[in-house]
């Protein structure tokens, strides 16, 4: 039997905060951990969360934001797939009076008032950390070190920053040479395909792979094994993110160094949402503090790694 809905005089008053979450996609282990963290934190607060996955397409993400505007959400949490091209849709959100918080990737807009705050990492520093370790490990050998870089999604904030920081530091030592800088999309498949092509072209002439994220590093690892070489020994692999899968590969010696990028941004995001709703001023940037992992420290970290 079905009963007629009882309308309570209180339901209208207790307005539940509604968040629109415009996510990049499902390209990586990092991304899945990020989505889970945001969803769990919203649930914890009792907020309603509308989630849209853009499959790494800017057009889809613009559509998702328009959907949220139509649904009259209270706030939009936005992880932009690329940096530019958002002015129009963010203007629409502003006109509708809906604030936008950027999560994990920044945008470049003409007008900074189109978003309230950025919560995420310093990608340039991550790139520098990767390169500093390399210089320290292989710098004193006096031999040429030939590097293949596997870039993340073209035009995305992390790909640009990680490239910039890395190049800045290796530029200090002429023994280090970036022989190929290949355009991937943060997926394991792209890392594997690009690396196997690079191996066909260069053979044993590659000493180092610098991957902009774990998934591409794991793909490169597979390509190197298929080519009959040993990842982590014949070719040094450096990666960024530090997901559990990568830390395992690091602990077993198949990767050599991993720079951390923290995906567990949900709690900080929800705090920012609440602060903003209470009328508090949000800082323009909230930067996550992060570490780095070697083969030894990965073993210890693995015991407590959640994602
Ligand atoms: O490093 C990568 C993901 O935007 C920081 O996106 C994020 C990056 C992360 O696909 O794995």
From TrEMBL:
It comes from the Bacteria. It is found in: Cell envelope. Residues 19-281 form the Periplasmic binding protein domain. Belongs to the bacterial solute-binding protein 2 family. This is Substrate-binding domain-containing protein. It comes from Paenibacillus validus. The chain holds residues 324 to 630 of 630 of the full protein.
């Amino acid at each position: 039997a079905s009963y007629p809905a009882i309308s309570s005089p209180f339901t209208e008053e207790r307005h539940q905060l509604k968040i629109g979450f415009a996510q990049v996609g499902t390209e990586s282990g990092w991304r899945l951990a990020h989505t889970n963290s945001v969803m769990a934190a919203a649930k914890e607060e009792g907020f309603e969360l509308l989630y849209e996955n853009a499959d790494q397409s800017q057009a889809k993400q613009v559509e998702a934001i328009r959907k949220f505007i139509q649904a009259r959400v209270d706030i939009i949490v936005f992880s932009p797939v690329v940096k530019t091209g958002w002015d129009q849709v963010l203007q629409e959100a502003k006109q509708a009076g809906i604030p936008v918080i950027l999560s994990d990737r920044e945008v470049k807009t003409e007008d900074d008032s189109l978003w309230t705050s950025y919560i995420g990492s310093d990608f340039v520093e991550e790139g520098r950390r990767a390169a500093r370790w390399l210089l320290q490990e292989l710098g004193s050998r006096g031999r040429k070190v030939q590097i293949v870089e596997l870039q993340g999604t073209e035009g995305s904030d992390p790909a640009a920053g990680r490239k910039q920081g890395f190049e800045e530091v290796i530029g200090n030592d002429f023994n280090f040479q970036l022989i190929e800088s290949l355009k991937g999309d943060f997926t394991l498949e792209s890392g594997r395909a690009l690396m196997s092509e690079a191996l066909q072209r260069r053979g044993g002439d590659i000493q180092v792979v610098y991957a902009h994220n774990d998934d591409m590093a794991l793909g490169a690892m597979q390509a190197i094994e298929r080519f009959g070489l040993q990842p982590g020994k014949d070719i040094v692999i450096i990666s960024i993110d530090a997901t559990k899968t990568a830390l395992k590969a690091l602990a077993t010696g198949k990767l050599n160094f991993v720079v951390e990028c923290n995906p567990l941004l949900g709690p900080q995001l929800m705090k920012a949402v609440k602060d903003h709703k209470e009328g508090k001023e949000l800082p323009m940037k909230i930067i996550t503090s992060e570490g780095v992992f070697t083969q030894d420290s990965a073993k210890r970290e693995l015991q407590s790694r959640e994602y």
